[in-house]
């Protein structure tokens, strides 16, 4: 089983790359951001607690996100591997993930840090939108649908933007990343599993760099 963490600030391309790697390597994407947004949409207790925190750009509690990950690891016990996208984000989450994996006899293979200039992050996030039906990601300048107003994947004509993708919230999310997430890198550097990738390159070039780190895709 292959296990990797995609680490990087908001807008670094974690979700974009996770989607591509899922298709290519047959891995399952575990995005705590997506899980929390689904909980908000469903109006669950977790969603009600997370909603205001996410809109402010702060971090949801370690307990909530770790429970979401733990449940998904159990649900997908037979998966060929996982891409952790947006988790862990704090030292407590990094330690909790170690415990979750060790209890299942699993071990991380790679932590891939996507490095992107901060100016580019704001630009990327403010231009981002997704298909309201299948969630395919687009960008006002870098990745428009091939036929204007029509999703390339499912043909839907409805698109949406995230409520936390505004300049003020992005600044808070970046500050949270610097203060709480970047400091977990030494935890993984000590294990010799960190690789850095230039996230400023074109999307397919970033994917090629990650492919080289992961090795040959499994046959799926
Ligand atoms: P989350 O959903 O995880 O958001 P994030 O980390 O802020 O990351 P983003 O999804 O904004 O960016 P990304 O790196 O995936 O970039 P993307 O591929 O979309 O978390 C949201 C919130 O949930 C948090 O603020 C927090 O409140 C809460 N939360 C989630 N997990 C939590 C946790 N573990 N603990 C506590 N709270 C948690 O790319 C961005 C744009 O750039 C796209 O338009 C894309 O097309 C474009 N793009 C991507 N790559 C490139 C490239 N190489 N060149 C040009 N454009 C590119």
UniProtKB/TrEMBL annotation:
It comes from the Bacteria. One of its GO terms (molecular function) is AMP kinase activity. Pathway: Purine metabolism; AMP biosynthesis via salvage pathway; AMP from ADP: step 1/1. ATP binds at residues 11-16, 128, 201. Zn(2+) binds at residues 131, 134, 151, 154. The keyword Metal-binding applies. Residues 31-60 are annotated as: NMP. The keyword Kinase applies. Transmembrane segments: none annotated. AMP binds at residues 32, 37, 58-60, 86-89, 93, 162, 173. It is found in: Cytoplasm. It catalyses: AMP + ATP = 2 ADP. Residues 128-164 form the Adenylate kinase active site lid domain. It is an enzyme of class 2 (transferase). Its EC number is 2.7.4.3. Keywords: ATP-binding, Cytoplasm, Kinase, Metal-binding, Nucleotide biosynthesis, Nucleotide-binding, Transferase, Zinc. Catalyzes the reversible transfer of the terminal phosphate group between ATP and AMP. Plays an important role in cellular energy homeostasis and in adenine nucleotide metabolism. Monomer. Consists of three domains, a large central CORE domain and two small peripheral domains, NMPbind and LID, which undergo movements during catalysis. The LID domain closes over the site of phosphoryl transfer upon ATP binding. Assembling and dissambling the active center during each catalytic cycle provides an effective means to prevent ATP hydrolysis. Some bacteria have evolved a zinc-coordinating structure that stabilizes the LID domain. Belongs to the adenylate kinase family. This is Adenylate kinase. It comes from Sphingomonas natans. The gene is adk.
